[in-house]
Write a structure and sequence with these properties.
globular; single chain; alpha+beta; Aminoglycoside 3'-phosphotransferase, Chain: A, domain 2; 2 domains; two-stranded antiparallel sheet; Phosphorylase Kinase, domain 1; 4-stranded antiparallel β-sheet
């Protein structure tokens, strides 16, 4: 598919269109997208699709201010679809990397995500996730110096709370909205700009931050994975990254949730 195959006059936003080649696709347009924004999404989707686990939309076109992907339709998942997705996510997380990070930087929402490779998962999560978000929030006046210091102290103690785990390919922004129900009910991964090699428990934790999939999903995941059964106890630690990101993206309404995690640890 080429840009000429798409209808003209598409403004910023999300569009479902049929190209001149007859392909149905979803087109995202953002005329002032940050440099590399859609390239990161394409790179992440390609990596996730290459695992042959969960369904991932094909990419038809990617440019500086546009991406066109396969239209998966919208449907209602059955219990069996959730079970299939849970087992498939467990298999995806078996895709291991030699180090934490990714071959290119990414985006979590509109926040740049530093994916510089690192052999130490604790250091990667501390420096490239928690402390990076904390610096951004401090620079914007969204947290106080005392909050940033508490985050630093928490980072120093990560090995006390988080068990050592290998670098696994993860979606990186896996809230329930990015586990999309296709027209036939099958669950698919979308919005892959945050994909990288990180901790599998981080993906699971975000799945319970804003609602969560039904129990058959987690039952199937547990049956197919060696991930520790008590991962929910550590979910607030992993989700601190996303709460800080939401604080940076959407404002002070998330400060209370950030501080609640800091009080807990």
């Amino acid at each position: 598919m080429n840009i000429a195959d798409l209808p003209g006059g598409l403004g910023d936003g999300l569009h479902r269109v049929t190209g001149q080649d007859g392909k149905r696709c979803v087109v995202k347009v953002r005329r002032r997208a940050p440099a590399g924004f859609f390239a990161a999404e394409a790179r992440g989707l390609d990596a996730l699709r290459a695992t042959g686990t969960l369904r991932v939309p094909e990419i038809h076109l990617v440019g500086d201010d546009i991406i066109a992907i396969e239209d998966l339709g919208s449907g209602q998942p059955r219990s069996s679809d959730w079970e299939h997705a849970g087992a498939a996510l467990a298999r995806l997380h078996e895709t291991s990397g030699a180090s934490f990070g990714f071959d290119g930087d990414g985006w979590c929402g509109d926040t740049p995500q530093d994916n510089t490779r690192c052999s130490d998962g604790y250091r990667f999560f501390a420096e490239h996730r928690l402390q990076a978000q904390a610096r951004l929030a401090r620079d914007r006046g969204l947290i106080e110096a005392s909050d940033a210091q508490r985050i630093d102290r928490l980072c120093d103690r990560l090995p006390e709370w988080i068990p050592a785990a290998p670098a696994a390919l993860i979606h990186g922004d896996l809230w329930t909205g990015n586990l999309h129900a296709c027209a036939n009910g099958e669950l698919a991964l979308i919005d892959g700009g945050a994909a990288h090699y990180g901790w599998a428990e981080a993906d699971l934790s975000m799945l319970i931050l804003f609602g969560e999939p039904p129990s058959p999903f987690f039952g199937a995941y547990a049956a197919s994975s060696a991930t520790n059964a008590d991962w929910r106890e550590r979910a607030p630690l992993y989700n601190l990254y996303h709460l800080l990101n939401h604080l940076n993206l959407f404002g002070s309404g998330y400060l209370g949730a950030v501080r609640a995690v800091l009080r807990r640890y």
